[in-house]
């Protein structure tokens, strides 16, 4: 990460709520919520005023308890959810001069297909379980405008090889694979169009510890090799400690603390972060 380089992604005042709001909760300044929830009108404020920069080649970790808004934030950034309000600027897109959330759905598809990759916690969301693994990768490449079957097959084989799927299983469907292998195919698929940014949402949750370590090692290795920027969501501070250069801590839809990962681990400021860090010791 270059300390003086410009961010590759800048997010400002991102808000996402589910529900229509009421007098008690509509004004962000003096909202009276029970955690992220308005007891009067049942609106859930999943992401509130989120701001951050992601720098080229860095891994930014996002940690927080269940329901803190981590996945909603990732869904908004990948256009799986529409934001309620906010701005996001991506340096490789129109030189960072256009708010992604204001773009047409066609342009959002372009950004998803060319400039971002996402790996989901549940491989069913990221893969077509009955397509071959090569076919899964080709699908993402076709979506980005590729038509040359030979070139796509060779790129897919190269990527599957990189994530250690044996050659003789590349034509098999992910439904036949173990959880760790499915995550590795998802990673290969997400990388297929060489995106500068990868979004990783709880990608090792639910895997055995040794498989988890193996997938995290692979991601770390690829990140170093490809110098890709990553946003990595986890509820597990151990995963964040291993992977992230900087970390944002979320609680009830808000960022309560952010900084260098080492700094946060050594000297957590917010009470919630202190509890998290102590539970790791
Ligand atoms: N479609 C929806 N409708 C209503 N509320 C929602 C919806 N999606 C998410 N939420 C709420 O938004 C809040 C944040 O959820 P989110 O899934 O982003 O949390 P998270 O930090 O990723 O949690 P987990 O680690 O359990 O996945 C939760 O209170 C959740 O109930």
UniProtKB/TrEMBL annotation:
Gene3D superfamilies: P-loop containing nucleotide triphosphate hydrolases (3.40.50.300). The keyword Nucleotide-binding applies. PROSITE patterns: ABC_TRANSPORTER_1 (PS00211), ABC_TRANSPORTER_2 (PS50893). Coiled coil: none annotated. Keywords: ATP-binding, Nucleotide-binding. It holds the Pfam family ABC_tran. Residues 28-277 form the ABC transporter domain. It comes from the Bacteria. CDD domains: ABC_NikE_OppD_transporters (cd03257). One of its GO terms (molecular function) is ATP binding. This is ATP-binding cassette domain-containing protein. The lineage of its organism: Bacteria, Bacillati, Bacillota, Bacilli, Bacillales.
